[in-house]
Amino acid sequence: MASRISYLVILAAWIAALWWGLDFAGRQKATSVAVPTTQIDWAEFFAANILPGLPVADEFDTPLRPPDGDGAVVSFFYQEKDDLGESWTTAKGDAALGEPVYSVADGWVSVAQDFQNAFGKVVFICYRLPEGRWPPFVEVMYAELDSIDVKAGQFVKRGQRIGTVGNAGGTYSVASGAAGASLRWEVRQTVGMGLGPGFEANASGWLGPSEFITAHRGTRATQPLLQKVLTDAERPGWGTDY
């Protein structure tokens, strides 16, 4: 088990370094980037070598105010204007800054990195679902964080604090003219997709966060989520990344 954990830590560090390099390489205008001569299919490699060592996540909670999201607010929801995730917060403006963010289930941290103006501080966690469930695994992106409390390669438990709500280092702060602090999170049924575009008409590979949590409540299947979804009239002043 110790050797497997060490292997996963090394692999996670490699993934984080690769994504960091690709992110900044993509912003440079006239810099040539060396392309590796040998490439692997990360999704295939993950399914064959990483997935079997992950804990089984048979119960999912909300990332804010778990287990049911009581007091959390959805300020921008999945597929609204082609959004591939949801924005959650707990107060207007930047008042939610520092609100704890929790892992939605037992899982493994694949990336914990500050991508600066590209979604700010970001944590990716892979979750393995029980046999027979669909999809067999997901990777959740927790973005725009103010702080990160976990490291790549670390195993986490459901309800464990992984960071705090932020505004992507001020990018979405009230002072910058945006709506304020929120958690942007996405649920992907394919691992290793990187930061992603954020907004895309083709949502293949993404799942609705609220719908996914509702469908995988485990022993609390009959207990509804309590997060409030804002109407257009209620939305002004609440944090989003749009």
Provide an overview of this structure:
- This protein is α+β, with helices and mostly antiparallel strands and 242 residues long.
- It has 3 helices and 11 strands; from the N terminus they run H-H-E-E-E-E-E-E-E-E-E-E-H-E.
- Strands 1, 2, 3, 4, 5, 6, 7, 8, 9, 10 and 11 form an 11-stranded mixed beta sheet that branches.
- A hairpin with an 8-residue loop joins strand 5 (121-128) and strand 6.
Structure characteristics:
alpha+beta; eleven-stranded mixed beta sheet; 242 residues
Question: What is the fold's blueprint, element by element?
Answer:
Layout: H1 2-27, H2 42-50, E1 73-76, E2 86-89, E3 100-102, E4 107-114, E5 121-128, E6 137-148, E7 155-156, E8 161-165, E9 183-188, E10 206-207, H3 209-215, E11 228-229
Parallel strand pairs: 1-11
Antiparallel strand pairs: 1-2, 2-9, 3-8, 4-5, 4-7, 5-6, 6-8, 6-9, 9-10
Offer a quick outline of the entry.
The chain is α+β, with helices and mostly antiparallel strands. The protein is built from 3 helices and 11 strands.
Q: Architecture, CATH level 2? A: Distorted Sandwich
Structural class: alpha+beta
Write down the overall geometry.
globular
- Assigned CATH class: Mainly Beta
The domain tally reads 1
What's the main sheet like?
11 strands, mixed
User: What is the average per-residue confidence, as pLDDT, rounded to a whole number?
Assistant: 86
Tell me the β content. Answer: 15-25%
CATH superfamily: Glucose Permease (Domain IIA)
Indicate the radius of gyration in whole angstroms.
Answer: 17 Å
Low-confidence stretches: 17-32
In DSSP terms (H or I, runs of 4 or more residues), the helix count works out at: 3
- Helix content bin: 10-25%
